[in-house]
Amino acid sequence: MERVMIKEKLSKDDIRFDSILEKAYEIEDKRADYIINDVSKNLWMDSNDGSLSFQYNSGTGMDVENMPATGWALSQLSTKLGMPSGYAEQCINKGHPDLAAENVNTWLMEQNGSKRKKSTDYLIRSYDGRIDGILSSGYAAFDTTQILNTIKKTIDVKNYHVVGSYISDERMHVRLIRDDLLDVDGEDLYPGIFIDSSDVGRTALRVSFGIWKKVCTNGLCISKVGGILYHQRHLGVTEGEVESRLTNNIKLVPNLIEKSETIIKAARGEKIDLNDPKMFEKMINDIRRLSKNKVSEADAEKIIDLAKVRYGMTRWGIVNSMTEIAQKYELDDRILIENAAGHLIVA
Questions:
Q1: I need a labelling partner for 57 at 20 to 30 A (CA). Which of 114, 244, 258, 318 fits?
Q2: Contact 266, 281 (CB under 8 A)
Q3: Which DSSP string corresponds to 156-209?
Q4: What is the torsion angle, in degrees rounded to the nearest 10, for the CA atoms of residue 291, residue 261, residue 17 and residue 224?
Q5: Could you read off the pLDDT of 258-300 as tens digits, one per residue?
Q6: Is 236 helix (H, G, I), strand (E, B) or coil?
Q7: 247-256 pLDDT tens trace
């Protein structure tokens, strides 16, 4: 399935945790949710502009709303209907909302066909008058405000500071770092946690142990050695369960710090002859494979060249190069590449 990308990049502003929480509440104030029962009858696309109309029970009777939809929401709807994820948005953007509506409405009417035992219900999430999420009715909305408040209960945020963040109605990513250096000579590495989630189904809730290199603001998640402190799809999740599991798993951080120090020291000592053509090709292939080919071949070569001239021809040098090059990527792919670097370091 084609992914609709977050275009913004991670902010490097050193801001307060509470400022991010305030922003989350501002977003929440503009959000509204609607359960649409039997979408074959109660959801349709306008052929004039590609906006979506839906009928829902407001509590006092059946009401109708009409709203434009974001690219992400359209991709979710298209995928649910068995259409290519970017098709409806592409039609609308190229001036053919009638073509998008013809396809979407045809497939919506099929949702309650003879082969289905039940009608299909959707959860529509809106923000500031536009639809930004179209999800199954079983989606558990555990939103950014709840997540950040749970983090605040779980750790003493006064001992952490924000070194990178991104927050919108569609996505949240926050990096909280402590001030205590890792015990690795000559390295400015700091431990912390990376929090990633989405209110509209872009990603699962994930809290990871992270490492931050201060001078060049590289981020690294060593997930392969237990660095995922919490991972949960938005299905049946409750605040109490998240708080309980996360509180227990945060206790693993001292052990993860010790493991990461051992791994980094070993990677610093592992020499790799990047001038050898076979090794050069192997590392290019490893970088691309671990990043699920999000790193282009040209960028993989830049990573190797950067290791040669700045970080050194070691496994640790290549990992640092990967996390530096990752900064130029959009958020979704940056996170993926940083996790790929975390896998490469323990390879």
A1: 114
A2: no
A3: -GGG-EEEEEEE-SS-EEEEEE-SPPPS-TT--EEEEEEEEE-TTSSS-EEEEE
A4: 40
A5: 999 999 999 999 999 999 999 999 999 999 999 999 999 999 9
A6: coil
A7: 888 888 899 9
Alpha-carbon distance of 208 to 228, in angstroms, equals 4
Opening angle at CA 342, ends 272 and 238, nearest 5: 175
Cβ–Cβ under 8 Å, residues 207 and 229: yes
pTM > 0.85: yes or no: yes
Which of 161, 271, 159, 267 has its CA nearest to residue 214? 161
Taking the C-alpha atoms of residue 297 and residue 152, their distance in angstroms, rounded to an integer, is 41
The position carrying tokens 């990049």 is 9
What helix, strand, coil percent values describe the chain, rounded to 5? Answer: 45, 20, 35
In 3D, which of 330, 333, 309 has the Cα closest to residue 321?
309
CA distance 105 to 103: 6
CA nearest to 246, candidates 206, 293, 273, 280? 206
